[in-house]
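Table 4 source record.
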Amino acid sequence: MIKEEDIKRVKAEGFLWNKGTENFSARIITVNGKISSDQQKHIGEAAERFGNGEVTFTTRLTIEIPGVPFEKTEELKEFLSLSGLETGGTGSKVRPVVSCKGTTCHYGLTDTFDLSEKIHRKFYEGYGKVKLPHKFKIAVGGCPNNCVKPDLNDAGIIGQRIPRFDEDKCRNCSTCTVEKICPADAVNITEGKITLDEDKCINCGRCIGKCAFHVSDDYTDGYKVYIGGMWGKSPRKGDEISRIFSSEEECLDFIENIILYFKDKGIPGERFGRTIDRIGKEKAEEELLSEISLKEKNRILNQEVKGKGATC
């Protein structure tokens, strides 16, 4: 009979108990949902040697090998390390990052694999020993199609392409190709000139370069951020930050500021979305944009978070 404290200990290392057995599922981190063919072979061999021969996939783009005996957990970890793989992804801390396929997709606006790997290195690994009030999930989407549901994560990033029209070049064509291709009905011809309704525009970039007279050639890339989203028993759609971040560095700094803010303001057992509800969306956004937590990084990291947090 495996002791309860041993079940909790190996869970923190990425081994989740298979209910009704004395075996565990080893959760393997893929960084951003991408592994090499050699790593795939290695995982397959690991499943045969240490598990039940099966490999399963989680909704967070990690891989699990079920049926691992308790006494084989350390041996499996050593075997996986030979191909640069590790187990983990549990606890009240930054969880594995989810990414869409990015620029290999027809609609992709940003290299989500690259950005999500940077987030993984800086926050999943860099903040790996930082205990938070609850689990903290991050997702990176390459366009407003939102395939990985960034707005249902504690922090969600969406690639943006913001059009800038040169109205002076508009020829008032009988059929406007830019107006026709816009999926959000944000483009209109008003008094013989093209206009963009910025309240409707979703910054998908599909109109860029679609005008033969170069009205829609100019644009700016950026990142939209959502905070406080979550799925599960009590879903909460994330709050959209009013600012569009113009650089990757700005976006990464803001994500770090969010994590620190949650650690500082959150109550143990409380998801970040509930922290925002308690503080108030407007006040939380104001404090986050002022980078108040980033400025007090050392103090926040050195304060202890006590109490029970994530249970799954």
